Every structure is written in structure tokens, then in C-alpha cells.
Amino acid sequence: MKIRHLLTAVAFALCASTATAQTFQLSHNAGAGNPKDAASLKFSEIVKEKSGGRLQVDVGGAAQFGDDAETITNMRLGTIAFSANSQGTTSAVVPEIALLGLPFLFQNLEQAEAVMDGPVGDKIAAAAEKQGLVVLGWWNNGIREVSNSKKPILAPDDLKGMKIRTPPDPMTIDIFEALGASPTPMAFSELYIALQQGVVDGQENPLINIYSSKLHEVQPFISMTNHKYEATPFLASKIVFDGLSAEDQEIVRAAAKEAGELNRKMVRDQSTELRTTLEAASIKFNEVDPAPFVAATQPVYEKWRAQYPELVDELIAAAKEAAK
């Protein structure tokens, strides 16, 4: 009888422990091994450890819980808790985020990180919170290059008439319209098949995304345009976040920071290593003279400055300061 009572007590304790655990979903669109995926898994691990198992996070990579746009909608409704989302998609509800992708604004990742970790990043995060999204960290996606199936891109004229897939991001669309291409917005989850079937001629992404999603299998040319920086806003649903205790909010913020450090390190390391890997896979790389690309995209600055004059100038000043 004593053993039976003991087993009953243990079973009751286990049930009680399970009942008090909260499980949340974290959505992103990247493939396995991508820094976005690795950092998301790290975030889940840290949250579970720091909360003693009270908080658990299920990571749904490769758009398992929906693409980035669906995820943003569900976060604002409170049905998905976290997302390592994309800059372009998030800008549909927080237009200020698009400004991070002004053409040729940042020369390297360290410069971008310094700006994102400063007052400008805080100002954009405040705009996101008004739209029901809490920015837990500015992770990195990388600096974007152009790949295509036809030829090296050496000058803006080489892009004329080419269908280039872009994210559903007005900044990227503006850039490629200014360069003379035919931008074709589509979800990242649809991109590989669209390239394989020739629906679009090319696309633009950091090398990390090109490699982890195997886009190089159907894109033999990569041109190092370095045309645009891309952040990965690591977001929480404001509805979900506000429902956490102060202690649990701190656990989540600390986990996001630590996971973000992993993400940034992986992006920096892989951004230099992957060119060698891709060249070994017979991908043809070429450098570009940035001057004609910079000149061709100046109207993009004029358009966005007309909408956000103070923030554009503040962002440019911060970028210049970080470059010193």
C-alpha cells in the first residue's frame, strides 16, 4: 500500500508539473543549420533551462507554422508567441523597419550592429511595439547579393528586363526598380521552385540563405553587389509577452540576447566562409564596382526621406558615426 501511495503521489506531482508548464511556438522561414534556425533553437533551450522547464518553446523552422506574413498576423493576434522574422515582411506592419535596408547604407555587419544596438534601433523597436510586436533583439540575416541563372551582373544595365524575386518588401522592390530589373515579390518558401522552373531569373539574399536553402543548385551566378543590409528582427507577440510575469519577461529577454550573440557570430563567420564553399561547388562569383549602383539608387533615398525625413537622416548619421 505504501508503494501504491508513493507511485500515486509521484504521478500527481508529474501531472501538476506538466499542467503548470507553458508551451509557446516560435516561427521562422529558414532551413536547418541557418543561423536563424540555430539561434532559435538556442533561445528555446535557454528559456527552458532558465525557467526550470516552466516555459517551453517549440521551434517551427522552414515555415512549418506558416510563412513570415502569416506569422506576423498570428503574433498580433497572440496565437504565435515568437518569431525570428524577416525585415521585409515585418515592414508591412512597421514601415520604419524598411529603412534599415536603404541601399548601400552599411558597409559591413559590425557597422549595422552598432546602429541597431543604439538609439535608432530603440526608436524603431518603439514603433514596432505600437503595432503589437515586441523587438527582443536585432539578429542578423546578412548583407544581400544577387544570384541568377543567366550571366554575371557587372553593372545596373545587366539587370534590365530580368525578373528578380524580392521579398514582399517595398524597400527592396524600390531598389530593383531603380536598377532597371523587374522585381517579383514572393514568399521565401516558394523561391526554390520558382527559380528551378524559371518563373524568375534570379533573386537576392545573403550567402547564408542562398546556401542553407540550396538556391545555388539552380543559380550558377552570384554577383557580390552588397546592395542592402538585412536584419532579422527577433519578435514577441505583445499580447503573449504582456501576459508573462516580470520574472519570465526577463528570462525571455536574456535568452533572446544570448541567442542573438550566437546568431551574429554565425552570420559573421559564415559570410566569409561560404564563398569558398560555393566556389568549390562551381558557382561563378564576380565583384562589382559599387559606384554606378549607388548612383542609380539615389532616388530610393529621396522617396523614403519624403516619408520619414527625421528618421532617415538620423539613420544615415548613425551609420556614418559607426563607420569611424
UniProtKB/TrEMBL annotation:
Keyword GTP-binding among UniProt keywords: no
Keyword 4Fe-4S in record: no
Swiss-Prot/TrEMBL keywords: Plasmid, Signal
Classification via InterPro entries: DctP_fam, TRAP_DctP, TRAP_DctP_sf
Coiled coil spans: none
Signal peptide: 1-21
Pfam family membership, one: DctP
Cited CDD domains: PBP2_TRAP_Siap_TeaA_like
Protein name per UniProt: TRAP transporter substrate-binding protein
Organism per entry: Shinella oryzae
